[in-house]
């Protein structure tokens, strides 16, 4: 039988979930910029097969981190966290999800199309 969590425990749970979600989002942003910079600088020298490997690995990490975010949010919902049911929390979750999905798609496109043109080949 589950005992009811008191306010202090709910606040602690909220802090842990928020910290976890923020850390995952920051990691995703770091990985995204690393992939964009690497694709821009070295993309024209990579074989298509390597571009596909990079795109698959990046997408896999993005999906994994997003699923971890969803699991953290669902964990807090299991404990009837009062703070997780606010409209602000819902808006933040929706916006973060939009940024995550659109950013992942844009980065995948950038892997294949956004590389720096090799100056020695433009002659």
Describe it:
This protein is mainly α and 123 residues long. The relative contact order is 0.17. The chain starts with 6 loop residues before the first helix and ends in a 10-residue tail after the last helix. It is elongated and about 60 Å long. α1 (7-42) packs antiparallel against α2, α1 runs parallel beside α3 (87-113) and α2 (48-78) packs antiparallel against α3. The chain has one domain (8-113). It contains three helices and no strands. The mean pLDDT is 77. 76% of the residues lie in helices and 0% in strands. It has helices at residues 7-42, 48-78, 87-113.
Query: What summary fits the major beta sheet?
Result: none
Which band does the percent of strand residues land in?
Answer: under 5%
**Distance N terminus to C terminus?**
75 Å
Count of helix runs: 3
Fraction of residues in H or I helices: over 70%
Gyration radius from CA atoms, angstroms: 19 Å
Quick one: how many beta strands? 0
Shape: elongated
Based on secondary structure, the structural category is: mainly alpha
H/E series, N to C?
A: HHH
Number of domains: 1
Low-confidence stretches: none
Mean of pLDDT? 77
How would you sum up this structure in a few lines?
The protein is mostly helical and 123 residues long. It has helices at residues 7-42, 48-78, 87-113.
List the topology elements.
Blueprint: H1 7-42, H2 48-78, H3 87-113
